[in-house]
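Appendix B, example 12.
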Amino acid sequence: MDNPIDVLNAFYDAERRYMAAGGAAAGASFDEMASTLHPDVELHQSPDLPWGGEYRGHAGFREWSLKMSDAFDQLSVEDARFLVAEDKVVILCRLVTRARRSGDVLDAPMAQVVTVQNGRITEFRPFYWHVPDYVSAAGHAPRT
């Protein structure tokens, strides 16, 4: 699977199934998501998020998925539009999540810049629409 859009759709499908299976808290397997990721994948999340930070490799991505699945029991990328330029893909989409503790559903615009090389994702940079909404939905007080 060398087409970057196919790789990303496979990742999003795996991510959706992982969250629907209860994520890390329920012992869901990370293997399907990992199969779309380069072993040295880098994930750059806003430091303003409860799951913010820099994550590297499969272990780092698994660490991020633990934090994300602790906050949300559903996560889905919807209406994705892909803009491809060589190995970079800009994804314009809606991110739909349901907070694990409150049940609140967020449905907001999101953009991502993703690098796909040789059929594997090597880098993610997501840009959330309104970070304080995600912080609140995850059950954390906003940073001041």
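The chain has four helices and six strands. Residues 38 and 120 are 5 Å apart (CA to CA).
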